[in-house]
Amino acid sequence: MTNPDETIRFSVSLPKALLDELDRRVVGKGYASRSELVRDLIRERIVEATWDRGDEEVAGVLTIVYDHHQRELTQQILEIQHRQFVQVVATTHVHMDHHNCLETIIIRGMPAEIERLSQEIGGLRGVRFAELTRASRIQN
Ligand code: NI
User: Which end of the chain is more exposed for a tag (fewer CB within 10 A), N or C?
Assistant: First the structure.
C-alpha cells in the first residue's frame, strides 16, 4: 500500500556544473531547499504538459494593458468575453493613468479555447500588452 502524499527520498546524479546552476537558482529565487525548487520545476512541467495535451479543463489569467481612449475597445473586449465557449470567472480593472487601463481576466475552459480568446483580445486595436498565465490543477 502506498500513500500518494508520502514524501519519498531518492538520489539523482548530476554533472557538477548543473548542480551549481541548480544551487544558484535555489539561492536566487529564495527557495528553502533544492527539493522545493525541484518539486516546483516538476509541477511547472506538469502544467505545461496538461496545456499541450489539451484534453482537460484548465485555467488562465490574461493580463492586458489597453488604451482607455481607444473608441469602443472596452465594449469589444466585453463582447468577446461573452461570446466564447470559455467561462470568464472574474475580471479586475485598474486605471493606471489617464491613458492606460490594466485588466486581469480569469478564464476557465479547454486550453485551445482559452488561447483563442486571449489571442483575440490581445489582437484588438488599442491593446498594448497581453500576456496569458497558464495554470492547471496539480496533485501534490
Ligand atoms: Ni480604466
Answer: N
